[in-house]
Amino acid sequence: MEALQHEDSCKPRVGLAAKPPAPPTSASLHGPITGVIIANGSTDVEAQQRNDSQPAPNLQNGTGAGAPAPVGNDKSKTEPDLTSLEAPYFQPYWSPAFFLTCFGAILVIWVFCWLYVGAFWNPTTRLGNLHVAVLNCDMVPGGSTLNASFIASSNLSKLVPAPLATSLLSASIWNKSSSLSRLLRWENGSCTGAGDSGRVCGTPQQEADCLASYSDDVLQGGAWALLYFPSNFTASYLSFFLGSGALGGAQNQRPVAHYVYARGRDYSTYTYVGMIILNNLMPGLSQKLTWGLANNPGVLQIMSPTFLASGISVSEVNLAPVKNFGQHFASYIFCVLLWLGSSFVVVSSYQFKLKSEQDLLTNREHERQQAPGAGVLRLRHVARALMIKGVIAALFMFVLMVFLCIVLWALGKGTEQWHLNPGYAIAFGWYMSWSFIAINAVLLHVIGIERFSSVTAFLLILQLTSASGIMSIEICNRFFYIGKGLPFFYGVRGFRTIFFGTCQNKMYINWLVFTAYNLVFAPLGLLLVTHRVWTAPNRARKQHRDGNAAGMGGVILPVAMGS
């Protein structure tokens, strides 16, 4: 038998490019295809004896690949090369599978619409999820800091029965019946040493330290903003009263509140926060105060009329300014482009074959069994292919990340912002792209090449809406909190740390998340790739024997490759 098989392997094989193989007979379905398969169920030995008496096909005169197959008992079918078996498998157009596929595509695209439109549908209804700290250090100045004549003539206890900021806030954001109290989630802040020396926030140094702590919390991803009323807020108000002596005798010092925020955290979200504080809350407080004074003739007699025109003001303190909106958008679009690049690398590695992979896919089963040390050789081929393609993929993503940073340099022309250096950005994006490659490799080898594009697009859209890239997930539907378990969320946050310095104390979490993705999906992807290449010949024979492509959810063979 071995002699016959060796003799058969030395004969020229009939090409299949011009004519596809005929469907297998029932007799051929009961055993592996190892040589010549006879349509009438005769044995390989009998087929070999008959074929020995027939001349070899002449490939030059048209009797080879394009010649009609023999008829009668001599009708036979040569086992095709595995490279031709890897050609795409087709199914009937007018079939239930086609219409189910179309219906599924409509559903997937419909879900895309739900995700994208629903994520940002009327975010103003969820602004109450945004946390804003209010640090009120205002206090009524002591009698020793004011002129005694002013205290006696103005009846200070009636003029300012409580700190001005406390009175204004009590009637607005701390009043549950006020609409302003529901627009944002307000939190009343406090400081260490409160009450010492009669001061709400402690000594001046303690107040300064407390302000710095709350400001850092805003920068590091805590409260979205800080509304700070300094301890001299009421004293500044009293400076508009004639002869008050407040602030050491300085006159007409406008009361100033401080709005502390970090635009680099999320540009769009701060549009809503700033609109509420700067356009609604503070103008409303100032207007209410001035209208009340205008209707009090007794107060107007001892007060400078300039206060009615100026009122109270707000000082904006931006801890993470954004000079160019495009760079802020880059923190989001970089993740998208790296995901697309990783998808391209994975699909290209699947389609284009190294010579070692071709050797694995074209070796015959009996040749592999007879060759000494064949298993070790095949393992070496697989390892070499994985190493080469892994290096090429990593190099591709590194070059892509460098090119992305070049865009910032070219457009910024020196105005681009780097809280951390550009090398850090390249390293971070490159390391993140490894996770993207690993995830896409697993998807490709689990669901197959035909469904890969749809699934990876769905995962991309899901991450686009849940990564706080366009708008914070805190003002999106709660479903999009799923983004905290996906890599985009940490990529966007990491780039904003690198560019603008926000959330610096969470940068290590971003690295840990990508490390976890790499440790889980990279070995799984390598295992799936190795399994596909290792078992490709057996699957090719099974698919050829059964006469159909891989079933739903199965992994079919790659597209046809060149020699």
From TrEMBL:
One of its GO terms (cellular component) is membrane. Residues 107-520 form the DUF3533 domain. Keywords: Membrane, Transmembrane, Transmembrane helix. Residues 1-11 have a biased composition (Basic and acidic residues). Residues 1-80 are annotated as: Disordered. It comes from the Eukaryota. Its main location: membrane. It is found in: Membrane. It is a multi-pass membrane protein. The chain crosses the membrane at residues 97-121, 329-350, 386-411, 423-446, 458-481, 508-529. Residues 40-62 have a biased composition (Polar residues). PANTHER family: TRANSPORT PERMEASE PROTEIN (PTHR43077:SF10), TRANSPORT PERMEASE YVFS-RELATED (PTHR43077). This is DUF3533 domain-containing protein.
